[in-house]
Amino acid sequence: MNRTVPFVVVAILASSLGCKEDVAKGDALARVDDTILTVQEFNADIPLEYAMSLTPVQKMAFVQTWINTELLYQEAIRQGFDEDRRIAARLKQIERELLANEFLQRELVGKTNISIQEAQLFFQQHESEFNTEIKIAQILVSSQDTANALLARIKGGADFAELAKQHSLDPSREAGGVLDYIRRGDMASTPEREDAAFALKKPGQISDVIENRYGYYIVKLIARRRLPKPAKFEDVSDRVRNMLLVRRQKEIFEVLIDGLRAKAEIEVHPELLAPYSPAPFVKPEGS
């Protein structure tokens, strides 16, 4: 069965390749003026998941995309876009994020393997939760002070759904914060929220404020029910290992960041923050 290579993969790769160095004639797969795409670059930069399945037509589509991108790039340089300060700032940000992500990925290599034994142990410790699904409502806000204030109002008798509609940043606010039934692992990307939600035992029970990378959550248990068929480890092993993988990555990231913070001088001045007003784009002269 043929596999389609996403256009974004082709476009990103096409924009990242090409050199102006002298190369053997037989190695030059394509050329635009002085810039050459070599066979070695082509082979080295195709993602492994696509390398073995590319058809000749797909390979030529890649080459044509590289040519089109190079033509646009060269024209942008001729018109002075590389001297535009906003574009230079964006390129710097891309470089910053690329290097940071590459460093992080290399730090994770060999440290995030989840053994079958670990997954089985976690399942055994949480087996009742894997045989249950829950319905919750949630409120997401951007600051802990706001979350604490809302939690106090809820404990004082305020209506959770109304507060969700008024204050929550999550799309579920339109429904009063209510989500569909979820199972263990459905919120693997935010383990703090999932753990807190499944720790609630009685409908109407409210969690404490939950902090994660998206902000600050408050969760309310609406209903809890048993699955019609008991879950076996073999049925959920992939789900369990993914949950543990996310948790392991988070732990490694936090230790890494704590170590880097300890060695750095960091200052933050939140009082200087103001509503963002972007400067108008000014096209380079001569374009």
TrEMBL record:
InterPro entries: PPIase_dom_sf, PPIase_PpiC, PrsA_foldase, Trigger_fact/SurA_dom_sf
PROSITE patterns: PPIC_PPIASE_2 (PS50198), PROKAR_LIPOPROTEIN (PS51257)
UniProt keyword list: Isomerase, Rotamase, Signal
EC number: 5.2.1.8
Recorded catalytic activity of this chain's protein: [protein]-peptidylproline (omega=180) = [protein]-peptidylproline (omega=0)
Ranges where the PpiC domain occurs: 131-223
SUPFAM superfamilies: FKBP-like (SSF54534), Triger factor/SurA peptide-binding domain-like (SSF109998)
PANTHER family named among the record's database cross-references: FOLDASE PROTEIN PRSA, PEPTIDYLPROLYL ISOMERASE
Protein name: peptidylprolyl isomerase
UniProt source species: candidate division TA06 bacterium
